[in-house]
Sulfotransferase family protein (Micromonospora endophytica), 300 residues
Amino acid sequence: MKVIYITGWLRSGSTILGNVLNELPGVLHAGELHYLWKNGLLASGTNTLCGCGQQIRQCALWSSVIATFGDDEPTRLARQMMSWQQAGLRTRHTRARLASTPDHVTAVLDRTVAVYRELTRRGAERAVVDSSKYPAEAAALLSRSDVDVRVLHIVRDPRATTYSYQRGKRYIEPMSPAQSTANWVGFNVASEYVGGAADGRYLRIRHEDLTRRPREVVADVLRFAGLDDEPPVTEEGKVTLGINHTVTGNPDRLGQGTVLIRPDERWRTELPALPTATTTALALPLLRRYGYPLLAGKVA
């Protein structure tokens, strides 16, 4: 059972990449499966629709998966899962999860892997794409012998994510440059820890390369995942998207039809000087590691 687990900070392009992969036969993008319990079963988050447009519990695919849980009170199960996730699978737990797996984390993983297994019976016989982006969860999954986990780490210039977080969206609150960049550093450093322990099951790509050379980067991802398909995207970045069954994620996931993958460079001219300087200073060591220039006007 193969799982492509996407990690990294938010606004990195994981939704579009997952949905591109979803177009391959036998590959299913499950979205941010970590939130199946909060947004799906409890409908208590801000992003409770399946990618097909239905509420999670009304979606034909997810309702059939939920029916296999064998629990008379799925809301009780959801609250228990969320409690265990908070106790052992936050970003700060990443190094600990590489070292050991306590019982409550094993319980979460058992249920998560059971969901993966049900998805393989419903169209994901070749691979499940899980874009949850929790490095500690990726770290814990690496220890499992019943799932072939490939960790795909996506990074994006932190000044672009700072720009994106200047304004709130329907499903997420705005964030200050310092807060956005602190999270960017934390999630990416934690993902690097996972990469160091993944023994060949880790690949890092950049959002900028994905949007400038989509067919080439998707081909790299497919080789890494052990999938021999042709990338379902043209050199120019055109891809035709059908229905998906993603949990949570960017609302763009609800769209279908022809999409053009292209760079969004507005931040280079529209992000004010102070947020740019704050982000650059806080992210400096990783900027160099990921090949991003110090000056916002220069293209990496």
Q: What stands out?
A: The chain has 13 helices and seven strands.
